[in-house]
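S1.2 Input.
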Amino acid sequence: MNTLALKVFTALALILLVESASEDQKRYDNYSVYKIRHPNQLQRQLLHKLTKQHESFSLWHESREEIHLMVSPQALPELGKYLNKTYARSNMFISNVQELIDNEQALNMKARFGPTVNWKRYNTLSEIEAWLDDILIRYPGVTEGFILGKSFEGRNIRGLKISYKTGNPGVFIESNIHANEWITSASATWMINQLLSSADKQVREMAESHDWYIVPVLNVDGFVYSHEKDRLWRKTRQPSAISSCIGVDPNRNYDSYWMVSGASNDPCEWTYAGPHALSEPEIKAMSDFVSSIKDKLNVMLAFHSYSQLLLSPFGHTDEKVPENYDDLMQVAKAYGDAVKALPYGTVFRYGSSAEILYPVSGSTKDWAYNEQDIKISYTVEFRDTGKFGFVLPPSHIIPNAEEALAGIEALLRECKKLGYLQLKYKV
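S1.3 Output.
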C-alpha cells in the first residue's frame, strides 16, 4: 500500500471509529458555555435557580469572580432574560461543546494507531489497568499494586505504590474522582511513568525519597460512563432511592462537615452529596484504605480540573483558617512559582476553597486534613481557565503533567524545609 492510499485508509478508519463510538453517546450539539462575571448575591441565587433546569443549564465552574454556565440552545432565550434582569456581564467562550468533544475523540482515535500508551490521547479504564499490570511486571522491586475496594458496579478500584526504600514519608495522589476530568488520570499515569523511568536528577531524588500511593481513577464507574455514554458525566453511578437521577458527587461525600455548605440535597444536581456521608462505595473504600495507612502519609493531593488553582483547607467555611494556614500558603506558593517558571508560563492561584473559589464540604482535602491528620492537603485544579474547560485537548496532557511534576517537586521541597515530612511511624 503506497503512502497516499495509507493516508486515505487511515482517514476513513478514523471516521468510522468516531462515528461508531459516538452512536450511543449523549450529544451536546450547539451547547454553549458562558462566563458570567462578578455576580452579586442576588445574581448567584437566580443563577442557581436556572441550574435546577438540569437539561438546560449546567454549572461548570464557580468562583468569587465569575461563574461558567453551559446552556442548551433551547435555553438561550431564558439566559437572555436572566442577563437583562440582573445586568450581569457575560461572554460566550465555548460556542459548541460537541465540536470540542468531536475533536477530542478524533485525536484520541488517531493516536490509537501509534504505541499503546503514549499520552497523546486519553486512555480508557481498561487501557489504564492493562498498563498498570505491565508496570507491575516491569518494575517488580519498587512497585506494588493495591485495591481500595469495589465500585457500585463491581469494578476494582486500583492503585499503585512506588517505594524505593523503607523509611520514606508518604504522598497519596487521588485522581479522577470526578469522571469527566480526564486530564487528571492522564497526568497521574504520566507521573507514574516519570517516577519509575526518568533519568532527571531532581525527579530521581523526589521519586526515591518518598513513598507514592497513586490511584489513577477513583470513580471507575463514572469514568467508564464518561467514555462510553456521556463525556461530561461527573458523578458516581449508584441509583438514588428518592429520584430517577443517578449518582452522587463523590467529592461531597466524605465524612467531614458533610452537607455543611457547597453541596446539594437534590439527586439531580452535579453537587449532590448523597443520602449520607460515605454512601458511595468508592468513597467508603478510599476512606477505609487511607485510614488504615494514615500514619504513613504526610501529603494528600487530589487532582481535579479545571481553573489552575491550588486549594487548601478549609472548604466548609471562610470564617476560620487551619492552624498551619501560613505554612500551607508558603507551600502552595512554591508549587505555583515552580509551574510559572516553566516555558509554558502557566499561572496558578492559591488559597483555601472557601476563600478564593466557593464553599465546599465533604471533599477529599478537608477530610484528609480534619479526619486523617494529614496536614499538607490540597485540591490541585489543573488546566485551563475556561477556553476548553473539561474537554481539554490531548495536546495539553504532557505540558499539564510536566507542570504537575515540577509543582509537586517544589511543594515537597518546601514541606521538607518546614518539617512536614518527618515520619509518623517507627521504621
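S1.4 Remarks. The longest helix spans residues 397-418.
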